[in-house]
Model the fold of this input.
Amino acid sequence: MSAPTLAHLRGQTAKLAELTERRAATSEARKSGRADTRPARKMPLMRKYEVLSQDDDGNLRSSFHMAPANPFFEAAFSAFARGTALDTPQGPRAIEDLCPGDLIDTTEMGPQPVQWVGSMQIIPNAPIADPALGRLTRIMANSFGVHRPMSDVVAGPGARILQRPAHLRDLASTGPVFTPIRNAVDGMSVFEVTPPAPVTVYHLCLPRHATIKAAGLEFESYHPGMGIERIMGHNMLTLFLSLFPHIDESADFGPLARPRMSSKPDQARDVA
Done:
């Protein structure tokens, strides 16, 4: 190995002197109270989402994505707890057994093919933006009338059920609307539970937004709401749509099958 040149030694000495000066300046700033005490910027919470879809040849494709752990993203993956049986032309089938291409019954259009199945895990005590996103909702049999539902149903925080909210029942012109499941909690026959262990939750997309059934109780298929391009920045919208391989743009989700209620019970209908 050749000996270091004089220029190289001078360069190394200059770098060492500069580093020493920086350390001395930092130490002096701390002693005088001039050091930067601003808190470090917090990184956004992220979550792993699983997507089951079909490629252009009709082959099943499973993919994993890291995306923000916020209510908007999580609502797309958290309507039904593992084991929830949905109505299909062949009879009830557990949500985890449904794949893109399988048919599922809808109130508005009859049997429709599943296009997309998304899933994630609710993990006890994990850091999340909203504590409500870490809870499930148990709906006891007959909570909303005879055979509604026929047996207990466990829904995730992203679920919406079809019902007429109590504060709208005096309006004769108001029919049932899709209502966030947490708005139906009464602490007696519908109540929230925190799972003691990780639970996988699911949601699914159909060609169009529709009403689907689980044990006789009516839920909605997934739809992000109208006008999401107005409330999400371009980069965030691009990331969100990348979770849906069958969607090219937000308009491809189509119209809402029925009105939707805001997540806040005191607000009017929310179709955004």
Q: What stands out?
A: The CA atoms of residues 24 and 53 lie 58 Å apart.
